[in-house]
Amino acid sequence: MAQNMMLYWCSGSPPCWRVMIALEEKLLQGYKHKHLSFDKKEHQCAEVKALNPRVQVPTFKHGDLIVNESFAACLYLESVFKSQGTRLIPDDPAEQALVYQRMFETNNLQQKMYDVAFYGYYVPEEERHESALKRNKENLVTELKLWDGYLEKVMGKGSYLAGKNFTMADVVCFPVIAYFPRLHCPKEKCPRLMEYYEMLKDRPSIKASWPLEWLEDPVGQDTLKDL
Amino acid sequence: MAQNMMLYWCSGSPPCWRVMIALEEKLLQGYKHKHLSFDKKEHQCAEVKALNPRVQVPTFKHGDLIVNESFAACLYLESVFKSQGTRLIPDDPAEQALVYQRMFETNNLQQKMYDVAFYGYYVPEEERHESALKRNKENLVTELKLWDGYLEKVMGKGSYLAGKNFTMADVVCFPVIAYFPRLHCPKEKCPRLMEYYEMLKDRPSIKASWPLEWLEDPVGQDTLKDL
Lengths: 227, 227
Known about the structure:
The structure is a homodimer.
Chain A: E1 5-9, H1 14-25, E2 32-35, H2 46-51, E3 59-62, E4 65-66, H3 70-80, H4 93-117, H5 119-122, H6 130-154, H7 168-177, H8 179-182, H9 191-200, H10 204-208, H11 212-216
Helix pairs in contact in A: 1-3, 1-7, 4-6, 4-7, 6-9
């Protein structure tokens, strides 16, 4: 069934990773894929360009249908393969409300993480300001506290972002959360999130899609050590 | 049915506006609401704080359920009131794929519009750079061309963002698109988008939720006139 799917992806990209987790959870292993090196700019290849005018990954194709935005691909997979594998969007309105809420709050966490961890990458040298980076760090610390509080609230130990079940909220957010230990963020900035990370990192869908570069270099950079 | 809904909103905020359009399309007129002045910082009131730790609008409550992220609220309303009013997410997988894709691409258009139109608002004076604003403008022009091309592709004259029907893609994107004529963006930068805007601006759900401040001051600022 997954043989008519094609995913172009870069290792470690949170948007790519979340689509890969969704594919695993929906039991769509065996999908075709092409791993592209971001550093070598392979994601700008002709195949991606032909399918994605934004020339970015993930680029995802199911038969003739193209769904490139990571949230779009995740929702599409859940909808089309609703009864297959893990149910990622619950039917109960109260559960669903929380799943959607956390799912879209993920954009805040992702952007604020990027604004610190990749500040030097996104902002040209002559436009960088210590004051901006300092503010970005403060915003990220505040954001982490918020998420830690969310987990505090829904936990029971061992619960997921939207409660007792693994849902789409976890699919889209875990790849962002995984960057905090990866970049040596001090545990005390978000102890609950770090427990959550430990609980989920060996989940089969997540392990199967673990960034190749993180396997090759398990220590990584310490960009967030002074957060 | 809508009497147990409460929306806190600011006039003209694209995230608020899209929730209001969704409410109208799902025939949920009669929902309770509170209009807050962004300029007077009324969105930071205690009522919002109690429901939304991010202290921002929209803040939306349905019974005891709180769904504040605008995309989350729109998807929640469509799911819970699926058979009521306009069907905003089609069942057909091909149609659905395109609706999701355009829906989430809206974040790009919105962010790039903000990065130009509200550059002075978001970036402190001592951190502003002509080079950054110039780049932001170029990115926005490129983004507009992309959307104009999308409409070119799906049209037939009179079609919507994801084809022949009005969908969630239009709900979430129209409030962003409306900023271009509002801020005097030259029509030739996105002629198809401007046709689309003209076609949709009098749609009942959109007219009923039109920003109050735009009614009071129909001319507006010309922030995008030199785009």
